[in-house]
């Protein structure tokens, strides 16, 4: 059978930037085993498969990666799916009409703005609850596992914390963009630190020095399951990051809007728009938005 698929670049206005996400808009008939094989062949961070659903403005969604894992939907995969489906008129393009994506018992809600008849900004809203752990490796341990120096760690009352919104991540403030880019994860130092005991899945590095970029923060994911040359999508960790920022005494009560950059200046860059409602409560509402472009259309014969 023939299956059409579209390659999208997410969190960018420019082709060949952002996160590359292939999307199969009509994947009914593909087994999970075939989906996994296709994801392996694509060798992208995530491959999205869309299946029909009986409810209005609703689709079923499955995501597989090249590491032979099925994943839960994250904002970057939902944006990719929404971009393709609204571009193909398979879902309505109306910023007041929510689109629904179902994955097992989970339902994600997405809004797509209409930009002169084309999908513009695509926004996912999330209700989050976070667990905060202050027991983290020392500054010296962190510097060792990141191949940096202790002076690179921390700025503006930001301190390393472990934040969990279902999945725990160690979030580490870094003083400069250059230090974020220079960091190299050291597995030996990690294994001999207290980090593995926290069951942290990885480390999110961030700096507010973005090398004259328009973003408010530059971020990068590193960790035991991430190759040194990889710069994976960060959307799945934005709930943890937003909750982390609310722990800082400089983050006042109210709505905050900021932008986050992923990717080195000479590589594929992503730009995420984040809005969060800090009510100084256990629940935090965040809205993650971004643009996407379709870079190719292909047919797979299976």
Describe this protein's structure.
This protein folds into 2 domains: 2-127 and 290-301, Diaminopimelate Epimerase, Chain A, domain 1, CATH 3.10.310; 130-268, Roll (Diaminopimelate Epimerase, Chain A, domain 1). The protein starts with a strand and ends with a strand. Strand 15 and strand 16 form a beta hairpin. The model has no long low-confidence stretch (mean pLDDT 92). Helix content is 17%, strand content 40%. With 302 residues, the protein is of the alpha+beta class. The protein is built from 6 helices and 17 strands. It has a 17-stranded mixed beta sheet that branches. It has helices at residues 32-42, 75-87, 139-146, 177-182, 187-191, 238-246, and strands spanning 2-10, 19-24, 47-52, 58-65, 69-71, 99-103, 106-115, 118-129, 131-133, 161-165, 167-173, 203-207, 217-222, 254-262, 270-278, 283-290, 292-301.
